[in-house]
Amino acid sequence: MEARGLLTVNGASGDYGSLPGGEQEGPPGSGRRRSHAFAGQPCGVERGTDAEELYIQQAVVLIEDAMQYRSINHRVDARSLRLYRGYYSWICQWGLGLTIAVVLLLAFVERPSSLSISSDPRHRSAPWQPPCGFTESIEMVCLVVFCLDLAVKGYLIGWEEFRKSKWLIAYTVVISFSFIDWMLSVSMACDEKLRVRRLIRPFFLLQNSSMMKKTLKCIKRTLPEIASVILLLALHLCLFTMIGMLLFAKSDDPKKNGEWKLHFRDLPTSLTSLLVLLTTANNPDVMIPAYSLNRAYSIFFVTFSVIGTYCLMNLLTAIIYNQFRGYLLMSVQTSIIRRRLGIRAAFQVLSCQGIQQAAEEHVAVELVLKTMARVQMKSYYREAITKEAHKCADVGYMDREQFRKIFDELDKDRIKETVLVLNAEKSAAERDNYIIEIINLCFILYYLFEVCVKIFAFGWKGYLSYRNNIFDGFLTVLLLGLQITIFVTYKLPFSQWDPSSHSILSLWEMVRLINMLIVFRFLRIIPDIKLMALVASTLLDLLKNLRAFAGILMVVYYVFAVFGIWLFEGAITPPSEMSVLSNTSMENITSNFSMECGTYEQLEYWPNNFDDFAAAIMLLYNVMVVNNWQAFLEAYSRHTTDWSKIYFVCWWLTSSVMWVNLFVAVILENFIYKWDRSHSCSVTDVERIRYETSVQLIFREQIQEPTEEELLCQLNLHPHLHLHW
């Protein structure tokens, strides 16, 4: 029975992060084995001398789950908790991440090896080929690590949940298939043509990231709308292809057959020409032969571009943006639910210190402090939560709501205070001016260098012709004079300067005056600060929110590169004579070879090939950019078959059409939200949002908190922690 209400948002009850089991949960009393459930105990835990220690261990793990937005549906007995914390220790997680990276990087070393300086076949030296068994041994170690990872995950969530987890079942199948394919490679002395397991290696990256799984769900939800627009785009392409073949049919006059000969000779050529025009890569080349004969022919190409490129393609962007508009909010909603559930479970476990306490739902402050001392978290989070908990020390206990509120500190990012802020509440006798003086000196030296460079570049007359330069120069001279005065009065800077007054102005007053002047100098960029800050904060958020998108894009690159090597390895080879002439002039080459302008050979695109994995990745990137990608379409269809165009078109649809639009949608969502907030909030509110809170508090107004009934219902469905109320 799946969790109901808010707890079903975006797979909140089923996505385990690194433990992707339990997408469905059975009802209480379904006969599943509980880790500990004893009749007659209010919390389902056996009383005894070790009971409190077990309570604390459970609460520690549940709080850590809440911090990391992990599912709490795992075993909670003492031995399993130790294994669980060991599994999520930074050593194990880094080791697992390193193993995934190594198994993916093997593609660069395996045959065909990418270990050569150049990928150009004309002067590429023979790459180092690893001996048989070298990469296979490394891969076997990685597969053993994955087997251990699977075994630990399966044990921690239990067999019942394991059977219901599609990701873990797929994990098992992929590992098993990899072992079988590995044995085939070894038995064939590493001389097999196809290593099918290379194609499924990216799965190890996908299954280890809950964010990638969520992103895949969102992409799956968006596919029907994308497919409808792509179908409309295909109809548009076919319609104009038919019209173009009629307009530019072969005539009796050879002089008027330029357009037909180059772009509309047959159906595949016509489709390819207009498909490339859809990306503007061959504009205006595709229309020049016809346009030179009659300017009215331009109407056909302009109409095609306006409808296809500027209407349908942008409509696709709008649809993808509309589908992903709530992606970040939905992800935050799921994270908040997981955090609330983990905190609520920790409270319920800690309140099991007696029947009376459990009935009153109180937790001793001393027990909370003891638990927090063992939770693995950043020190500033621990200090903030402990400080909030101490506020209830007079009473001696806290209720459920107080317990939840102290963990609101987890939603706040650490505020990186400057030296000025740290010194703001100190008296002159307590301040250490050494650090701030060094910082000020660096600023002044930089300003002085800037002024000197400007004077050298513009000359005195040109420098003084700009008001901003006069303003900067005046402040720099004033700052330099104050700094020299400080050196004369207080000598060179050293730690623990004596800030007592030795002249008209004390050292602290002089330093503060310099700081005021430094800040005053920044007034010249006030008109640009707001927009610059908005753009900068959007870019920083993108680095956080696009990791899942970048990971899936890397998976797609990997799969298409492997397919490309299978299909086109060694398909394009330069003539043997060209290797000899590679260091001669272009005139000598063109005298021996006839190369049509704009082709793969004439543009010398030889390094872009599928002869090894690294070269394949670079070629796919060049096609994704769609600049001159028609050269690759034409070359590989000429050297192999026209069906090769399907591969490149599929890659263009996946990367350039779909993924670039997804990227634009995420950028729009981040930027529009920040823009709206910056115009609807006061300056103080904007600064608070940018610097004090995480993305969870940014969406506080849109987030719907789970109710107490929903949390209790989900806890009651826990497969291993059987609590009674």
TrEMBL record:
Keywords: Calcium, Calcium channel, Calcium transport, Ion channel, Ion transport, Membrane, Repeat, Transmembrane, Transmembrane helix, Transport, Voltage-gated channel. GO terms for molecular function: calcium channel activity; intracellularly phosphatidylinositol-3,5-bisphosphate-gated monatomic cation channel activity; ligand-gated sodium channel activity; voltage-gated channel activity. Residues 1-39 are annotated as: Disordered. It holds the Pfam family Ion_trans. Its main location: membrane. The chain crosses the membrane at residues 87-109, 168-189, 226-249, 297-321, 434-458, 470-490, 510-527, 548-568, 646-668. It is a multi-pass membrane protein. GO terms for cellular component: lysosomal membrane; monoatomic ion channel complex. It comes from the Eukaryota. Homodimer. This is Ion transport domain-containing protein. The lineage of its organism: Eukaryota, Metazoa, Chordata, Craniata, Vertebrata.
